[in-house]
UniProtKB/TrEMBL annotation:
Protein name: Class I SAM-dependent methyltransferase
Gene3D superfamilies: Vaccinia Virus protein VP39 (3.40.50.150)
UniProt-listed GO biological process terms: methylation
Keyword line: Methyltransferase, Transferase
GO MF annotation, one: S-adenosylmethionine-dependent methyltransferase activity
InterPro entries in the cross-refs: Methyltransf_11, SAM-dependent_MTases_sf
Pfam families for the chain: Methyltransf_11 (PF08241)
Domain Methyltransferase type as annotated: residue spans: 60-151
């Protein structure tokens, strides 16, 4: 079931009656308002605005969703490829006017090189597990032009485990506290559970550097979130 895509199509076609609901293995429930996925640049979070300002050359927008980032860049003359595993998202991007949209996963994408790869809205979590992040970054290397960059945002969710005394209680069975299992609900239907992760900047930097990247902290947000830029280290 492509519940995410169905929700986007409903909103695009004027059938907006309810939002997406996300559930995580932390037993948290959150509302994902559909209008947020169709937002203009002015309504984007600060970190996303900063990422779009830093884009250069040919851009790959991974996990493009409704295409808001791609549209903004396209309108400013960038050559943008929007990529999403959701068929519904791809349809909506095309309806909204994104010129180059690809239906597929980033892990299987190849053949074209880019100056900027965007992984926004915690898009780096598409690697699914921290253990897979190194090989995922190696794959992204094959998609970068010389001097190319990866722009990604994420959040250190350690605060979720903070106790009243300032200590942290992290479940002993967890490999890394940022690894979660998500489920999406829309109009009474639930998706199959799928893995995703949030990653703190220090760990991202360590893994990226082990794969031959330079990892720079661009800026931090108001709630443990940050924007990072990865470039291939030429030594």
């Amino acid at each position: 079931m492509d519940l995410f895509g169905e929700a986007l199509k409903d909103y695009q076609k004027g059938r907006y009656t309810e939002d997406l609901i996300t559930f995580t293995s932390l037993e948290q429930e959150d509302i994902l308002p559909l209008p947020h996925l169709f937002r203009s640049y002015e309504n984007m979070p600060f970190l996303e605005q900063q990422a779009l300002k830093l884009c250069r050359g040919k851009v790959l927008d991974v996990g493009c969703g409704a295409g808001s980032h791609s549209l903004y860049l396209q309108e400013r003359g960038f050559s943008v490829t929007a990529l999403d595993v959701s068929e519904g998202a791809v349809q909506v991007c095309r309806l909204r006017g994104v010129k180059n949209v690809v239906h597929g996963s980033i892990q299987e994408y190849s053949g074209t090189k880019f100056d900027t790869i965007l992984l926004l809205m915690n898009g780096i979590g598409v690697a699914e597990k921290i253990q897979s992040l190194g090989s995922f970054l190696e794959h992204l290397k094959t998609l970068l032009q010389p001097g190319g960059q990866i722009l990604t945002d994420s959040t250190d969710i350690l605060y979720v485990f903070e106790e009243e005394d300032g200590s942290f209680r992290i479940p002993a069975m967890e490999d890394y506290y940022g690894e979660l299992i998500f489920t999406v609900e829309y109009k009474g239907q639930k998706s199959k559970p799928f893995p995703w992760f949030y990653i703190d900047f220090t760990l991202l930097k360590d893994i990226a550097e082990n794969q031959g990247f330079k990892c720079e902290l661009i800026c931090s947000g108001d709630h443990f979130d940050y924007l990072a830029c990865l470039t291939i280290n030429t030594y």
